[in-house]
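User: I'm writing a short methods note and want a consistent example. For DNA ligase, I'll paste the sequence; you return only the structure tokens, no commentary, since I'll be parsing the reply automatically.
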Amino acid sequence: MCARKSADTIAEEIGALRARLEDANYRYYVEDAPAIPDAEYDRLLRRLQEIEAEHPEQITADSPTQRVGAPPAEGFPEVQHAVAMLSLDNAFDEQEVRAFARRVAERLETDEQAVRFCCEPKLDGLAVSLVYENGLLVQGATRGDGRTGEGITANLRTLKSIPLRLRGDNLPALLEVRGEVYMSHSGFEALNEDARARGSKVFANPRNAAAGSLRQLDPGIAAARPLEFCAYQVARIDDEQLQPSHSALMHKLRELGFRTSPEIDVVTGADGLVDFCDRMGSRRDKLDYDIDGAVLKVDDLRAQRELGFVSRAPRWAMAFKFPAQEQTTVIRDVAFQVGRTGRLTPVARLEPVQVAGVTVSNATLHNMDEIERLDARINDTVIIRRAGDVIPQIVSVILDERPEDARVIVMPEQCPVCDSRVERIGDEVDARCSGGLFCPAQRKEALKHFSSRRALDIDGLGTKLIDALVEREWVKTPADLFRLEASRLAELPRMAQKSADNLVASLARSRHTTLARFIYALGITEVGEATANALVLHFGELQRVMDASHEALEAVADIGPIVAGHIHSFFAEAHNRETIEDLIRVGVDWEEVEIGEREQPLTGQTWVLTGTLDTLTRDEAKARLVALGAKVSGSVSKKTHAVVAGDAAGSKLEKARQLGVAVMEEQALLTLLRQHENTTPSTTSSESDS
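Assistant:
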């Protein structure tokens, strides 16, 4: 009896977990209204996985845990479509759209303005068909040739925007839904950025990425890609569940758990169709996904049946196509732009060409690795793509059209803005200007970092004020900040005399800092607070840091060859040394640091911060721990000394408990910090507790 009760309890918990997870998927992917945080979703899914692992007899095909993990297939089976997946006839201008509306009205023998059309954007992805029996997903297939497709059920099951089980009670015994699998711009860029970082092949465009992901034999690959599904058609449904119109069917699909386009609209007559196409064209660049047109369908299903089909397309629907987003052109030259952080980005100067209605004359080449991957050269003919607000980029080179005068693209040795050396250390993808504080291209960003709270902490010097000072050329280097006079500052818009006086006073206070803060403020690539603190503890004075060899820098705790290279390169640049000397001339100073006298109390300890702290920000807590010699990590391991847990602490807290790592609340951390900060000289100044 007890065993039966236990089984019932387990089944109830599994049912509750599955219901919460599927509801979370529906709210996130269909309603775009997340109901629970990602950490809570992960916790629920992990709990369900644990229970199902202990009770495998409880695993069912519609469980959220079954979206991933199927073994790679040997090949995709053929699937015969019960209802052919036909293509649509295309319209390319307003006259053709109006002709479509006129033909529909004539065949229906009605006034053109009486015909209602359901319109939606034409997603640029891969068309698929989903079959549900008694509410469960049993088959997913590609369009193929319209009659026969490939069975990719295992891959489609990994998409969280595809329900494994339909929502609601009165479910159709049979339902076939057609829709588009696609990839958002943000997901596509993140996927390619990750591929570039790993040195892997990047995808040409979101459509190719979506199609390639779905046709992987290993479902785990599809599961790892940012794929989405949007339903646009009901191919089969029980007669008693059939709705009077296409728009009503789309509403029904949302109730059953499918995402449909939020842009769907019902219009009347040719004017309504033209207006919708114009509206979608104007919104095209604002969407986070590719559309290549608009789909226009007669809304009334009885009218659709009356209109029927031609050989390969329905008479009741048409696709209005936007101008192509890919074109061919020629690379005439390559320029190197210097970004705010010193990164050099190669930009192709193109023979101007119209792409998606816009004249394009420049396209990003990302970095030298991307140039090598493309094998792009000056005077090559290339395919370029412009989609949405994404910067135009080169998709591929047409090697068959390479001319004899094609020239190899070479990274400059000197910065094109300040003439400082260009560095590319180790296996890093990016090349950077070593000019740092001196380089005009990096000036605004360098000054913002220099004056930030964890650097020299110049109160009142915000982003807009820095922009104004740089644009007026009142400030070219950090030292110029300390030469500003209140009377001149008061001339700036929205800068009263009192504000000017307060800023000058703040600048005076910030002259007196710590050596670790000063090194951090210099903005050396990959030198954060912990690294700056380590340099001070090791060398004790700035001159020794500046004169240290690459090998000597690598001898510092937690500094590897890449970071050592950045530090050595920064101080080897004469412009940077001159800027430091200028800062010292205008009165920036710090107390001498005695090294070797006392070890920091938290030296050798690794701490982790998780959740929201009430009194301190995470950055403040990290800075104070680092000042006491600790290393602050983003992940928990057996070597972690302690985890500080605030409100809504997630998986890090749970992992700490599993590993037996000490867990500390914020008040205990504050007590420990006060205790050590009152007795230990530090290389960085402490933040206040409030």
